[in-house]
Design a protein that fits this description.
alpha+beta, 7-stranded antiparallel sheet
């Protein structure tokens, strides 16, 4: 909302939401139910709250009464500075039950500046598809614990691909900021200045590696991820049962592609059966999935899978890391290895 006036308007100052702590007192001002200028008070109940509204969720939670009509109103700290913009509530009744959420000023201030300067929001872009690092995935990769964001796929012609970030890398830090869990990365990248060269620390092949990346700009629509596998490659028929994983697999023939609707440009080994109560079943593998990699190495035959699983078992690994393609969606899955 832009207002053209010939006089200076009163305004409030932004505060530092990152310095706020759980338990700090706050005051919310809004227009609930048409009652303009209503003031409520409470404390900050939580920081960086994810309420599943989008990839950049990082709300301040408060028990100050926020109702319908409060949205867009300021939330002040005790210094009289705005540290949040009231946005949402959780309520089974429609009224305040003491669970309200505000966009922190660290995000809102930047968005306001972008709207003023560019007329739209601009977010940083890395060009990766990521997933969480579970305990099993961490163990299979040799990490000390479940932290970081696991790269499941890299967007063609994106900043990550240009800087040689690879599927299977675990991003540990971005521009000096720790990526404690997967959902931290989208927010950190989005907040980074477009065109800025940054250092990205990844875990690859059991060691840390620092990669230089130039942050791109996230556009509203990006092209669909492109598959790069060769088409029409001849594959010798081969089948196997990997008992330690609980799967039956086969090489991808033309008949198998047609039966399981596997695109021509997908390479790997096709899952044709999954045993109940197996490690593969626990992780949701199903017939039609294509195993692309085992422990970050490409596989094109059932024999390769059997060999790599046996190698992991010989090295006392309790699980193997599979890269699975399901209907074009790539995802890493750590599957436990049953002792022989």
């Amino acid at each position: 909302l832009k207002i053209e006036v010939d006089r200076e308007l009163p305004f409030v100052e932004w505060g530092n939401s990152t310095a706020s702590r759980v338990g700090d007192w706050v005051v919310a001002i809004g227009n609930p139910f048409g009652l303009g200028g209503t003031v409520t008070a409470g404390i900050i109940s939580a920081r960086q709250r994810d309420i599943n509204q989008g990839p950049y969720d990082s709300f301040l939670q408060t028990d100050a009464s926020i109702n319908r009509g409060n949205s867009g109103g300021p939330m002040f700290n005790m210094d009289g500075k705005v540290i949040g913009v009231n946005t949402a509530i959780f309520s089974p009744t429609g009224g305040s039950v003491g669970v309200g959420f505000s966009i922190p000023s660290s995000i809102a201030e930047r968005v306001v500046a972008q709207l003023r300067d560019f007329g739209r929001t601009k977010r940083g872009w890395l060009g990766v598809r990521i997933q969480s690092v579970t305990d099993e995935i961490a163990e299979s990769l040799g990490l000390d614990g479940p932290s970081g964001a696991l790269v499941a796929d890299v967007t063609a012609d994106g900043p990550a691909q240009a800087s040689k970030i690879e599927p299977g890398d675990v991003i540990l830090t971005f521009d000096g900021k720790k990526v404690a869990e997967m959902r931290d990365l989208p927010r950190i990248v989005a907040e980074t200045e477009i065109g800025k060269p940054v250092k990205v620390e990844v875990w690859r092949k059991n060691k840390r590696k620092v990669i230089d990346v130039v942050v791109g700009e996230l556009e509203e629509e990006r092209p669909v991820l492109a598959s790069t596998g060769p088409k029409g490659q001849a594959v010798e028929p081969e089948e196997a049962e990997i008992d330690s994983l609980g799967v039956s697999v086969t090489a991808i023939t033309d008949e198998m592609r047609e039966q399981f609707k596997v695109p021509d440009d997908v390479r790997g080994v096709l899952v044709t059966g999954v045993e109940a109560d197996s490690g593969a079943a626990e992780k949701g593998l199903r017939p039609g999935d294509v195993i692309v990699e085992v422990n970050q190495e490409e596989v094109t035959s059932p024999g390769q899978i059997a060999s790599k699983v046996s190698e992991a078992s010989d090295n006392d690994r309790r699980s193997v890391l599979l890269l699975v393609n399901r209907n074009g969606d790539l995802r890493f899955v750590a599957v436990r290895v049953e002792p022989g």
